[in-house]
Amino acid sequence: MPTSVVSFSLTEAERKLLPSDEDIAFYAEHGWYLSEKLLDDDEVDLLAAASEKFYAGHRDRVLPARPPRLAYWTPEKGDVQRHNDYIHYENDEIASILRKPLLGAVAARLARAEAIRIFQSTLIYKPPIVDEPTNTVPWHFDRDYWATSTSERMLTAFIPFHDCPSRMGTITMIDGSHRWQEPFGNGVTSRHFAELKPDLEEELRAKAVFNDTSVHKLPMTIRKGHVSFHHCRTYHGSGPNRSDQPRRAISLHLQDGDNAYRVFKLDDGSTAAYNHDVLVRRTADGRPDYADPEFCPTIWRNGA
């Protein structure tokens, strides 16, 4: 993994792009935030070009082991929605953009964290096929899959490679759902969203009623270079791509500097696991180290 980012500094122009105190309060209330333009057009175009080289077979390195629940599209899978985890590890050009300190600084402000590390990154390609079943991402929240993490402040940055309007099947938030209480068990299934039922509307409404509220869906209209951030407990999903162009993006999952591995028992008695657990180095007491710089590099640290 390249270590090109050795300084966590921002220019004066970049500091003006950070969330205001009002923005931070909004995020705390609603569970999502649409940023200013954090990436210039050249940076976004580099992501798109590097993704095409990746799909054509280019790798700067490959994972040393294959985790059991890895999302990893390969050409023989055809014209379905593509997901490729660990893109920040396998592709240096993409990593150089995802490690941009400004992205980490925005996340740190929203999460009220001193440091931000990459937790995971997934390259996504949604083909312009309206009736392709894989294009519909069911309602879910990311914390469900991160049961082995101690933090409740983790968040995700959704980074399109172009203007991303509703018709492209943009990411859609359930406003304020990060504050919901789960009505059944601990709310953790540890299932990948691809394993969920495509129609979870009734279940979502039941959870809203349990929390004495309603389901308020907000499709994120995101301009090129702007980024959508959401809290790890915010329900979200996306619909079909009704445009004539593929929807390209990266889902950049971020962890605060205090996050660490924990043993977590699921409702069925099994122990939760995450793909990192077979990849990252071990701590002194033998636990997976979610601060391993090879897979979870720090991209921002306050006061550094």
Estimated share of beta-strand residues: 15-25%
Rounded mean pLDDT score: 93
Query: What's the total helix number?
Result: 7
Number of domains: 1
What's the main sheet like? Answer: 7 strands, antiparallel
H/E order of the elements? HHEHEHHHEEEEHEEEEE
Query: Which structural category fits the helices and strands?
Result: alpha+beta
CATH topology: Jelly Rolls
What is the name of the CATH class? Mainly Beta
Label the CATH architecture: Sandwich
Task: Provide keyphrases for this structure.
7-stranded antiparallel beta sheet; 304 residues; 11 strands; 4-stranded antiparallel beta sheet; Jelly Rolls; alpha+beta
Description:
- The protein has helices at 12-15, 21-30, 41-55, 87-90, 92-98, 101-111, 201-210, and strands at residues 32-37, 82-85, 115-126, 137-140, 155-160, 172-174, 217-219, 226-231, 236-238, 247-256, 298-301.
- 40% of the residues are buried.
- It has a single domain (25-301), classed as Jelly Rolls (Sandwich), CATH 2.60.120.
- The model has no long low-confidence stretch (mean pLDDT 93).
- The radius of gyration is 18 Å and the shape is globular.
- With 304 residues, the chain is of the alpha+beta class.
List the topology elements.
Blueprint lengths: L11 H4 L5 H10 L1 E6 L3 H15 L26 E4 L1 H4 L1 H7 L2 H11 L3 E12 L10 E4 L14 E6 L11 E3 L26 H10 L6 E3 L6 E6 L4 E3 L8 E10 L41 E4 L3
Antiparallel strand pairs: 1-8, 2-3, 3-10, 3-11, 4-9, 5-8, 5-10, 6-7, 6-9
Short description, anyone?
With 304 residues, the protein is α+β, with helices and mostly antiparallel strands.
